[in-house]
């Protein structure tokens, strides 16, 4: 599994050492069984399957910035030294939502533990479709290159699962004049959650647009023509059936939550890729584009039955948080953005407009009890290992711990009613459960004798909800 961000910035032409702060998560992706592949392909709408030959980001077609004036590039000004250019330092994309705020992916601007990186390592480049290289001409006057002064990460972001993968950046200077957005730099409105079912329905395969400066093919490296285009590219693809997407990723050990959207074609070919992370996925509502997703992660780039995964911005909790962090009014109160300059007023106003009040963000309460799938066990001659997957319905505050108790019966000779007999005595021992990626928990027993044991497992989430019924696993070391 890999996120769309590169594992390192692009190499400069003088081949100086590359930093390794930008990483991606990768696991071996096993292929689905042939029968399941056939069934999934048969379930893909005909229109989606036919679109696999259309222009795409992966190997796709360039677009002018006027087509997507809200697209920005995030770059590290010191990735390869003091002379780093936007092309060499670009690592992610983003979307303009106000003159000083950018929506991007949380994994783009956080470390492995989910903490924000220093703001000095992130700059925002807007108003251009061309990333300037070391020998390139100066940027045109319309280009805006702004420093970042604040990074806000969605509180529900899970670094190990990419759930809630969204963040908001604040720039030091405005990227455009709020009274007159230009054709090169303009905001994009967020999709109103109340409109999502009408214009962005995965079940109907709604058309969406994606864009970015990412690789044109999976696994592209320096010297490969598919490695990091200079020109911005865009493509139109379709939202993917939640059932098919969940099945495709479940086969690879990844969970798709209701804070995620999937997009792609059944036969592959259209997708975002490394370097596109944080970039926009938009849907047309009326005559205006609306920001409905953020590029998050995927399996390869453009592979069949492996759609890209995007953060779902119309999720009620995410939508409310993004609007608060960006200083936007409540859902439905903002007007569609314009990409043409507005006429100057004849009489300038001396009274600044009163900002709309920021709605309070209230995350839904976590009241659901966690559940546990049937654990898997493996035993050697001296100990056993158990792997359990814990599920928790949304909204969730996360799993705090898994209580594990090992029990067994000891038989000993004893005297009862004046006669010698055999007595049974119950023994128990608490074991430590260790969290693993993919909501899994691992329990390893100490050295065991040649007898039967019972391992009792019960999960507890961070809101204090306990698993209703404990899982009991029967264990016995392999006999010699």
List the helices and strands and how they pair.
Layout: E1 2-3, H1 34-43, H2 46-50, E2 61-62, E3 71-75, H3 86-89, E4 90-98, E5 101-104, E6 123-126, E7 144-153, E8 167-171, E9 189-190, H4 196-199, E10 207-212, E11 233-238, H5 242-250, E12 260-263, E13 280-285, E14 288-298, E15 308-312, H6 316-326, E16 371-372, E17 376-379, E18 384-391, E19 399-416, E20 419-431, E21 433-436, E22 440-444, E23 453-461, E24 471-475
Parallel strand pairs: 9-14
Antiparallel strand pairs: 1-14, 2-11, 3-4, 3-6, 4-5, 5-8, 6-7, 7-8, 10-11, 10-13, 12-15, 13-14, 14-15, 16-18, 17-18, 18-22, 19-20, 19-23, 21-22, 23-24
Number of domain units: 2
Rg over CA atoms, rounded to whole Å, is 26 Å
Task: Tell me the fraction of residues in β-strands, as a range.
Answer: 25-35%
Find the structural class using helix and strand composition: mainly beta
What shape does the CA trace take?
elongated
Give the count of helical stretches.
6
**Broad CATH class of the largest domain:** Mainly Beta
CATH H-level name of the largest domain... which superfamily?
A: Trypsin-like serine proteases
Would you tell me the overall average pLDDT? 81
CATH overall fold name of the largest domain:
Thrombin, subunit H
What profile does the largest beta sheet have? 9 strands, mixed
